[in-house]
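Complex 311.
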Amino acid sequence: MSERDLISIRDLDATRVAGLFRLAARVKADKAAYRGELAGQSLAMIFQKSSTRTRVSFEVGMLELGGHALFLSSRDIQLGRGETISDTAQVLSRYVDGIMARTFAHQDVVDLARFGTVPVINGLTDDLHPCQGLTDYFTLTEVFGDLEGRRIAYVGDGNNVAHSLLFGATRVGMEIAVATPPGYEMDEGYLAAAREEAERAGTSIEVGHDPRAAARGASCVYTDVWASMGQEEEAKERLRAFEGFQVDAPLMAEAEDDAVFLHCLPCHRGEEVAAEVADGRWSRIFDQAENRLHVQKAILLWAMGGAELGA
Ligand code: CP
Ligand code: NVA
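Predicted structure with norvaline bound:
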């Protein structure tokens, strides 16, 4: 266990999220200023699932900070042959200064943090994707400045990305409206936890099944794939269930005039998003993907480099 694990956005209060965004903005503006901050440090990156953005942005991020990243596919390390999470966490903690992990079971990342002694960063589980959610709100601050009182609409599957957006909204003061097809709602436990945090933060959470109602008045419309990694066998059934949930130009027209479209990527044009939106005037998807690098460098500087994020 480390005081600087990032398993969920809930691990950072609103002040720290604001501090993280300030640090990410500095890192983005002046890459050279942070070169060498993690000299001699190593990050183990465990992947049980595929990745383009997470793998490349963490690996390049470590390089740019003067450290080193090790790509550990679970197929190639003993974890894939039955070595326990607890032994893996304890052994890696003797070699490296931080662990980033992308797993199926959320509990695996929780256990890596529990048994490891170095900071553990969640690089996506079936439940949560905190590095993504933080990056998404950072991207929105670049577009809109202060986010307080603005609305984000999430349309689609009540999945890992949706859960992290839910917690992130409470940190940046945004209203969040989530529209999913019946049967594909967010996890009730995460929703209840986020509702408590929203109440404390004075923000609101709306959930329902109507994409248009969710998008109305939103500054950002967000969607994600209909079948996440590990749900490939359900893909056909989900295509039917998600009919009417595509983010297209008429749906964007329900949002504010200056609304933007975000997607964590990878996306499927013609399924959850129309090409006219993914490649249209609303889209900030490639700025968003780029920002994974800057925000995660800030996370690494906090987790492994001792940077403080504010009181
Ligand atoms: N958004 C995201 O995490 O992308 P990858 O699966 O490519 O890492
Ligand atoms: N919900 C998607 C996100 C991919 C970055 C998945 O888990 O596959």
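The mean pLDDT is 98.
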